[in-house]
Amino acid sequence: MCAKKARSRTTPSFICELPLRVNPKEERELLIRLDGGRQIYNACLGESLRRLARLRESSAYQEARQLPKGLKGSPAARRRTKAFAEANAAYGFREYDLHAYAVQFGHAWVGERLDANTIQKIATRAFRAVQQHALGKQGRPRFKGKGQFDSLEGKTNQSGIRWEGEGKTVVWGTLKLQAIVDPRDQVIQHGLACRTKFVRLVRRKLGPHNRFYAQLVCEGDPYQKPQHTLGQGVVGLDLGPSTIAIVTRDAATAILVPFCAELESRQGEIRRLQRKLDRQRRAGDPGNYNPDGTVKAGKKAWHCSHRYLQTREQLGELFRRQVARRKGLQNRLVNRVLALGDEIHLEKLSYRAFQRSFGRSVGFRAPGTFVQSLRRKAGHAGAQVDEFDPRTTCLSQVCVCGAKVKKPLSQRTHVCRCGVGPVQRDLFSAWLACYVESDRLDAGRAEAAWPGVDTRLRAASSNVQPAMGQDPCRNRLLDGRSRSPAQSGLAIREACHGAPSPVTRERIPQPEPPAFLRGE
């Protein structure tokens, strides 16, 4: 049983997911309710965007923008915040104002199937999407098409969608959905033993079939498996678009691995399905295209054939499997990092910039998702993740002696006139990250520790193998040239404490399908 904690808005939470046993009649009812929630979401989203547009055109908003920002908590910052709050209240751009707007849907046909709490949560979801857009943190939110709204949730476990622990069922009005519970699964049993805050129903598409799950948002900390123990010490990370270097402060462990090395590339199959979709779309609606093959401007009606829908389901299933596999591999790598230390240092990078420069590689390996998973798991395990500003540290340019030389991306080794090197550039930056405090590199401590670390990092650098099936001089880690995931591979490289040893570089036959090389 979980220890009872104070029930407040700040209590920690975790999700316990259970599959549901749904018959065809219940599935039809759930799909109707999901579509009703989609229509409410689109209405609330459109109303929020209209209120935001009127707010931005108002004089009160423009005057608030002209106020000085000031430091956080200062009188100037408080005046600016108050001015924006007053402008938001005047034009109804607040969460509870949108709740009042959504009351009308409870009197329509959807009110017979969706309770008031669920409608309010849908309105909150739409408002937060527009709010993030207003703050510049996300792009303009899109309206949901038919079949694109996949989740509904309640506010409490007292009314609306609620979980009944005795019968292991989710009750929502006339619906009673039986959950499939494995009594031998300790993770599930831990979640059922904790208090349920609210319940979320999720629909996932597995090919042409729908599968429904209940996500119990439970109070407390998630179950920690015995094999996933938290280490002690400082660990430095250096993230790239497709690889990650992991080094402990004493360099007893130095690892350079690609994200999701075991993830198979399906780019060729994805590209073929995308071309097939384009051909089917052009054949079904030839009037929507110009003579040169481009799409006509303006509003158009699209007719989707049955074969087009089948191809789209195949492509969606391919992406779903790839995402599920990648998530499992990244969680395993996060557990590996946390087993090395409880203080993680890494640069605070812009993954949007990564997408602009290395779009295919980032879309395939998702380094930003890895960092999110690292923050979440470290928070529950009691570890600390310190993300520092790379503009003040410049770890890829500095040396322990204090020299600072800018290196091109093609230079993958660090060599300094003071005698440091050659050492792999990413491993060296990850080790320097262990000595960053308050966005500043403590070069003195790093220089004092270097004599006992140089042999270990050099050993790790010497164990960097060429890409599988590639010539050593064409290795991505050596020449820095970009390469797509389907063109080349990268073996996992790990080196622990030990003296440098000669490495025999043999040509390894390329497997089918190949592994992947980082795509910087």
Characterization of this structure:
- It is a single chain.
- The protein is of the alpha+beta class and 520 residues long.
- 40% of the residues lie in helices and 17% in strands.
- The protein folds into two domains: 207 residues, no CATH class; 205 residues.
- Strands 2-6-7-1-5-4-3 form a seven-stranded antiparallel beta sheet, sandwiched between helices.
- α7 packs antiparallel against α8.
- The radius of gyration is 27 Å and the shape is globular.
- The two termini are 47 Å apart.
- The N terminus and C terminus are likely disordered.
Please tell me what the overall shape is: globular
Strand content: 15-25%
Give the helix tally. 16
What order do the strands of the largest sheet run in, or round the barrel if closed?
2-6-7-1-5-4-3
What distance lies between the first and last C-alpha atoms, to the nearest angstrom?
Answer: 47 Å
How many domains? The number is 2
Radius of gyration: 27 Å
In the predicted model, the low-confidence regions spanning at least 5 consecutive residues are 1-8, 465-520
Largest sheet: 7 strands, antiparallel
| Portion in helices | 25-40%
What is the SS-derived class?
A: alpha+beta
Labels describing this entry:
520 residues; alpha+beta; 2 domains; 7-stranded antiparallel beta sheet; 6-stranded mixed beta sheet; 16 helices; globular; disordered N terminus; disordered C terminus
